[in-house]
Amino acid sequence: MMRVLLIVSFVAILFGTSCKEKTRVNLITGKVYQDCSTPLSNTEIALKSNTDGITSFSSPIILGSGITAADGTLTFTYELEEEDIGRGSLLLIKSTGFETLISSISLNTDVNINLYRNDISKVGVQLTGSRVFGVNDTLYYGTTCNDEIYQMVQPNAGVIDTIQVQSSMPNSTNVEETFYYGIGTAEFIRSKAIARNTDSSFNKITVNLNGCGTQTDIVLVIN
Predict the structure, then answer these.
(1) C-beta of residue 160 within 8 angstroms of C-beta of residue 116
(2) What pLDDT is attached to residue 55?
(3) Could you give the CA distance from residue 12 to residue 44 in angstroms, rounded to a whole number?
(4) What are the 10-residue block averages of pLDDT along the chain, 223 residues in total?
(5) Are 54 and 138 in contact (CB under 8 A)?
(6) Contact (CB, 8 A) for 184 and 93
(7) Euclidean distance between CA atoms 108 and 82, whole angstroms
(8) How far apart are CA 203 and CA 14, in angstroms?
(9) Full-model pTM
């Protein structure tokens, strides 16, 4: 009887050890910013599993969360079975819901990342071409990811502006946005109206945004 009990106990220990070996503890670290430089403090950041693509999750669940420190530092852990794979989203938790900071975190791996709530890229605008602008000519321009309208009266060839553009997909690289423009209000309104039309190339340029600390330069050729 004693021998049977010892065998059962040994099997139980092996089983328990096996289960523990299949569980991985993952670490999320980094800093969270309100904009490109201001730390975001005392804010809850949570990791949610995604259900799209190759994943072990049939429904989204919160895997773990942490509160940012005074300097925006974020540290928390979460556990998953070793065979669990997929991607997750880091969410900023608000009293009225949540805000997605990034939606492409690889699960079951340690991650160190800086997150920007307002991920702003610089876009340098250069003008070239044969057209000579008069004193009554105004160049209007904007981007599809925000509603701000920029303008330049009687622009000259060369660098005419550097604008700040917030990405529609924060904390991601090579995010394609559309820069559109027009001489005079009528042409600008037309270019804005069809900027998202993939069949039209009228007065628009595709610009890649890479977030805080980066600049993309574009060239407007107006003849």
Answers:
(1) no
(2) 67
(3) 39
(4) 43 48 91 96 95 71 95 96 90 93 92 94 96 94 92 94 91 93 96 92 94 94 94
(5) no
(6) no
(7) 7
(8) 69
(9) 0.76
Hey, how many other C-beta atoms are within 10 angstroms of the C-beta on 24? Answer: 16
- Nearest in space to 37 (alpha carbons), one of 118, 102, 98: 118
CA-closest candidate to residue 90, choices 53, 124, 48 = 48
CB of 43 within 8 A of CB of 20?
no
Phi, psi of 30 (to 5 degrees): 150, -160
User: HSE-up of 80 (CA within 13 Å, CB side)?
Assistant: 25
For residue 75, the Cα-to-chain-centroid distance in whole angstroms is 19
Question: In sequence order, which residues have a C-beta less than 8 Å from that of residue 32 and are 6 or more positions away?
Answer: 39, 40, 43, 45, 68, 72, 74, 92, 101, 114, 115, 116, 117
Burial label for 156, CB within 10 Å (0-12, 13-18, 19+), is exposed
- Spatial neighbors of 73 by CB under 8 A, at least 6 apart, are 29, 30, 31
Query: Residue 168 and residue 196: Cα distance in Å, rounded?
Result: 14
Closest CA to 127 of 208, 209, 205: 205
pLDDT of residue 56: 67
- Cα separation of 48 and 86, whole Å? 11
CA dihedral angle for residue 94, residue 96, residue 100, residue 101, rounded to 10 degrees: -30
